[in-house]
From TrEMBL:
Domain of life: Bacteria
GO cellular component, one term: membrane
PROSITE patterns: ABC_TRANSPORTER_1 (PS00211), ABC_TRANSPORTER_2 (PS50893)
UniProt-listed SMART domains: AAA
Family stated for the protein in its record: Belongs to the ABC transporter superfamily.
Record's protein name: Glycine betaine/L-proline ABC transporter ATP-binding protein
GO MF term set: ATP binding; ATP hydrolysis activity
Gene3D superfamilies, sorted: P-loop containing nucleotide triphosphate hydrolases
Keywords from the UniProt entry: ATP-binding, Nucleotide-binding, Transport
Domain ABC transporter: 30-266
Coiled coil: none
Organism: Poseidonibacter parvus
């Protein structure tokens, strides 16, 4: 099991003069809107509890004002929690002195912002090594680390350029390099790619995933974009009005959205890149198991019992053989043939295939397509209508 890198326990953040009073009102059942109307205080984060595994990309997603930035800034105490605990490597950061906190921020956590926040009068290598300079690292060492970080983001030839000589995408790479330069265990990325144009943005997302494959860090990435969350996230936490309403893998969230708010994020999202055949497979009632002695007559009877005109023919050990139809069975019966000769050679679909890859296959078939595992075992079927429903609506709650 992976190690827990970050643990957040019952964390609240109230913005306002008397946070404890607001928490009391919340405890007594007052709504956040009422608390704001009566006191002017905002509940930025309400009772957040979750754990982030070492090496995972954990995306926090939600609409504007849902509390994402507040939650992420609570992790390194750029914002002080009103109550609750936050552990990094089992150290309770809510109890650290200022000096210990600065130390943790310099050594363990880096942050990348949406606005690249580069210093215009400094060249790239000085920008990247600025944090190390603040930590008192000598020039040779910090330049070496900065150069390595620039290489990781593909900008090693731009060390002596100035920020305004670089494009937006390159400037954000510098922002990333600056975060990488002190070799942090944890990177907090607040809408880090949102200011980039779509093509560069996708490129940066791919690069981040690639970088992550080489050097496993723990990344907490804020996004308001589900496409991005799906692309890079191992798990996604969805925030609504200050609360974390759902945490799961992209597949889990798409397959079982916790509420309508979560569901609304999928409108227009390319779920075909997330769901594969195994996610939407269903067992059909009309399956025929190849028991000893199943002949054409009993197969026809079996199909009739289920009021279908086809069935899947499967060996006793679960291996998929093919499709039997009433028509093909009757044909063989007429000529005194064998049940195996009645099998229609229907191409089954591998359970790992993504929706986009097999939709045309299924659409071209008269019967629901059988889904098999890598070793040829029958898993269930996918019908054209079911597939199109998932394709169009993104969510399948049948
Ligand atoms: N310093 C502050 N003082 C008062 N209220 C604040 C402060 N910072 C944030 N808030 C409020 O807390 C709530 C959560 O804000 P937050 O910025 O965390 O949301 P967000 O999901 O990151 O939004 P966005 O995507 O627009 O950045 C909002 O209602 C916001 O107005």
């Amino acid at each position: 099991m992976s190690k827990k890198k970050l643990i957040v326990k019952n964390v609240f953040k109230v913005f306002g003069k008397e946070p404890k009073k607001a928490l009391k009102m919340l405890n007594e059942g007052e709504s956040k809107d009422n608390i704001f109307t009566k006191t002017g205080m905002t509940i930025g984060v309400q009772d957040a509890s979750f754990e982030i595994n070492e090496g995972e990309i954990f995306v926090i997603m939600g609409l504007s004002g849902s509390g994402k930035s507040t939650l992420v800034r609570l992790l390194n105490r750029l914002i002080e929690p009103t109550s609750g605990q936050i552990f990094i490597d089992d150290i309770d950061v809510t109890n650290l002195s200022d000096k210990e906190l600065i130390d943790i921020r310099r050594k363990k956590i880096s942050m990348v912002f949406q606005s690249f926040a580069l210093m215009p009068h400094m060249n790239i290598i000085d920008n990247v090594s600025f944090g190390l300079e603040l930590s008192g690292i000598e020039k040779d060492k910090r330049y070496e680390a900065a150069q390595k970080a620039l290489e990781q983001v593909g900008l090693n030839h731009h060390a002596l350029s100035f920020p305004d000589e670089l494009s937006g995408g390159m400037q954000q790479r510098v922002g990333l390099a600056r975060a990488l330069a002190n070799d942090p265990d944890i990177m907090l990325m607040d809408e880090a790619f949102s200011a980039l144009d779509p093509l560069i943005r996708t490129e940066m997302q791919d690069e981040l995933v690639e970088l992550q494959e080489k050097e496993k860090r723990t990344i907490v990435f804020i996004s308001h974009d589900l496409d991005e969350a799906i692309r890079i996230g191992d798990r996604i936490a969805i925030m609504q009005n200050g609360e974390v309403v759902q945490i799961g893998t992209p597949e889990e969230i798409i397959n079982e959205p916790a509420n309508d708010y979560v569901r609304s994020f999928f409108k227009g999202v390319d779920v075909t890149s997330v769901l594969n055949a195994s996610h939407i497979v269903k067992k059909t009632k009309a399956t025929i198991i190849n028991k000893e002695g199943v002949g054409i007559k009993s197969a026809l009877q079996y199909i009739g019992d289920y009021d279908e005109d086809y069935a899947y023919f499967i060996e006793k050990n679960g291996k998929y053989i093919g499709l039997l139809t009433v028509e093909s069975l009757k044909e063989q019966k007429k000529i005194d043939g064998n049940i195996h000769d009645a099998v229609i050679d229907e191409k089954p679909i591998n359970e790992n295939l993504q929706i986009g890859e097999f939709i045309s296959d299924v659409a071209g078939h008269a019967y629901p397509s059988a889904v098999i595992s890598d070793d040829g075992k029958y898993r269930g079927t996918i019908s054209k209508s079911r597939l199109l429903k998932v394709f169009d609506e993104g969510v399948d709650n049948e």
